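Request: Mind sharing a record?
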Amino acid sequence: MNQKTHLIIPMLTSVYLLIIFLTDTSFRGYWTDFFIAVVFVTYNLKKALNSKKVKGSLSLIHRFVSILPAILVYSVLAAYILNPFSWNVFKMKCFYNQEVNGRLFNAYFKPVGANSGGEGIFWITESPKYFPLIETQKYYDSAVLWDFSVQEWEGETVDQNEIVKRYIEQEITDR
């Protein structure tokens, strides 16, 4: 490999992180972007700190483009682990592949507790039908009044998938 090819993966990682942080587009699933980011920045950091092949000014660029995203990702990880209010994400409920009017949607519900003014945070994303590996956020409610993790309501079994489909119809497709 020549010296310039050592910069390709760190640059792609930086572009990937910019897309994740600055747009509503991500890979499908809540944890997917996080795991991909950690794997890429760890790989880049290891290559940058152990690289003997890159010399001169490219070495500084290579280290900068590798270390800065690693600091960002690991800082977000540390803040997330140290903040006890973020631990509710482990109770998150996901609804994948909800097809409504020929369009493919995913929905996520994260309970937040009693102080939020609702039962939790709810958002809906849409995936392209022919490339369902990515998704774009279409709807977000930080204080939804329905708890998507309950199994029954007033003694009757609740079909949460039907409720999610109604939300999608009301908030996205009917608008």
User: Anything to note?
Assistant: The longest strand covers residues 134-144. The beta strands are 25-27, 93-100, 103-111, 120-127, 134-144, 152-153, 156-157.
